Amino acid sequence: MVMITADQAKGLASLPFLKTFVAEAFYYTAGVLMFLIHVGFLAYEGGVSRSKNLLATMLKNLMTLATVGLSFFFFGWWVYNGFALWPMTGPLLGPWTDPDTLSDTAKAAFVPVVGSYPWSDALTPTKGDEFTGVFWMVFALFAMTTSSILSGACIERIKLGGYYVLSILLGSVLWVIAAAWAWNYFGWMTSQWGVHDFGCAIVVHAVSGFFTLGVLLNLGPRVGKFAADGTPKPILPHNISLTMVGLMLIFVGFFFFLACCVIFIPEYTGITNIYGSPVTLSMLAVNTTLALCGGLMGAYVSSKADPFFTISGGLTGIIAVASGMDLYHPALVIIISFAAAYLMPKTAMFIEKLGIDDAVGAVAVHGVTGVISGILPGILAAGYIAQDGQAPINLLGQIGGTLICAVGLGFIPGYIASWILNQLRLLRVSEQEEEMGLDISDLGVRAYPEQVTLQPQ
Amino acid sequence: MGSPFKTAAEYIGATGPLHSFVGHPTSVTVTLAISFLLTCYFIYKSFTIKH
Q1: Residue B4 forms part of a structural domain
Q2: Does the CB of B42 have a partner CB in chain A at under 8 Å?
Q3: In a domain, A139, yes or no
Q4: What does A96-112 look like in DSSP terms, one character per residue?
Q5: Which domain covers residue B37, as residue numbers?
Q6: Alpha carbon A103 to chain centroid distance?
Q7: Nearest to residue A343, comparing CAs of A377, A319, A378?
Q8: What CATH number should be reported for the domain holding residue A36?
Q9: Alpha carbons A205 and A227: distance in angstroms, whole number
């Protein structure tokens, strides 16, 4: 028999609380610091816009927090939990589900579903569940980030209301379905096809990048972006330094985004990825940092030190390794991030030559890079099995999962939704409003009321 | 290169390296060399890029 002191007994008694609190505190802190991504996007997009559109651009990005945050509370969180098994390994789980009819796996998947309804006690102040709320916040931040990717590409000509509708569709429905399938312990794409996407390159970046492409095809280019013969004309950022500060903030926020891709709950004895396989914060620290470095180098060389493309390369590098970064050697991370960021400026210019006006290169940085990232684990990290009975990581599974997400949950819905909004004249401002500037036409204010700004010739 | 683990249990219970180059020292050497050369190439290009 082991004798312990009264103080030791008190310490042991508080252990369950400490385990819960440490886990909650990890996600709370990392989740709040993810807001830096939005500070960054605000600055990034604002800097890229012309001064006559600065405040409208920033407001559009800011309000993404509201549109996506609220819709994620009303139904987005349920989508993530309810769609995991449907349609391949189980039913769509929701308030209509009778748990007695479910398989053992479905019963386990149903537990978080019950806590995801907006009327559930799990999201209220309650001592009965001290955890669901912090997870909800982290996922809501992921959702806001996903919609922010669309935000930048559409600046200077999209109607605010049209954008808000698209942001809700992308941020609280489409990427969430992709995540339910391919970034979920119960997700059928992982259990059946072995899909592995540690850092959400497929479910966030590929989905949002290709959704954006679908929207841009209907939105059309800014007035004056292309000459009559289709030659692209530069529309210069009014404050590239603000854009660069913004991207640096996005890098910081991205470290926290990836930290929130790590799972740490009170009953665990080690941290895992979303699939329940072992990871370490050490891996995250090294591989994220090296991916940023490799990406900056690759884009710097490829774009001949263009500041905008170079700093976008840092983000590209991280996205390029995000899917498999828990399984890659650091030297491999440097090579992948360099190569993807080297390709990115060429891709962005190719897209522009096709007549698509993507003001911030979202399709190249997020869409194309997200697809590359999603496929690479099938080549460079095949064979890992996340849980007993599941398919191993394999090339066909990665390709299939990536394409379904990028095209089926990204491009097609983006194109259809924006086409409908366009037909209803709810997508784009008038040419007159665009020439006047959205700050005046939408908001009735100027960003720089005491300055006279010169228009480029 | 690929999973050094044959089963899910082996992977979940791992206590050492997890990456896909485990057991492939040549892959480690080659990728380290390439990544170092890329870094040197970047330094070289920083002197030659002109506008």
Answers
A1: no
A2: yes
A3: yes
A4: T--GGGS-HHHHHHHHH
A5: 23-51
A6: 32
A7: A319
A8: 1.10.3430.10
A9: 31
Would the CB atoms of B18 and A338 count as touching at under 8 Å? no
Structural domains counted in chain A: 1
Tokens of residue A164, six digits: 């808000």
- The answer to whether the beta carbons of residues A390 and B8 sit under 8 Å apart is yes
pLDDT along chain A (457 residues), means of 10: 80 82 93 95 96 95 96 97 94 94 92 93 90 93 96 96 98 98 96 96 98 98 94 94 96 96 86 95 97 98 96 97 98 98 97 96 97 98 94 97 98 98 97 93 88 58
Domain membership of residue A230 as a residue range: 15-443
Cβ neighbours of B47 in A, within 8 Å: none
The two structure tokens encoding residue A35 = 């807001």
B7 assigned to some structural domain: no
- For residue A95, tell me if it sits in a domain: yes
State how far the Cα of A338 lies from the Cα of A343, in Å rounded to an integer.
Answer: 9
> Could A338 and B38 be called an inter-chain contact, meaning their C-beta atoms sit closer than 8 Å?
yes
**Count of domains forming chain B:** 1
Please check whether residue A6 lies inside any domain of the structure: no
Angle at A131 between CA A169 and CA A39, to 5 degrees: 50
Distance CA A155, CA A297 (A): 28
Q: CA-CA distances (angstroms) from residue A145 to A38, A192, A249?
A: 7, 28, 13
Query: Cβ–Cβ of B3/A385 closer than 8 Å?
Result: yes
Q: Is B35 domain-assigned?
A: yes
Q: What span, in angstroms and rounded, lies between the C-alpha atoms of A47 and A37?
A: 15
As a whole number of angstroms, the distance between CA A243 and CA A115 comes to 39
Which residues in chain B have Cβ-Cβ distances shorter than 8 Å to A383? Answer: 2-3, 5
The pLDDT, as a whole number, for residue B1 is: 79
**In Å, how far is B17's CA from the nearest CA of chain A?**
9
Q: Read off the pLDDT of residues A114-127 as tens digits, 9 standing for 90 and up.
A: 999 999 999 999 98
Q: Please tell me the predicted confidence (pLDDT) of residue A266.
A: 81
pLDDT digits (tens, 9 = 90+) for A58-92: 999 999 999 999 999 999 999 999 999 999 999 99
Assigned domain for B32 exists: yes
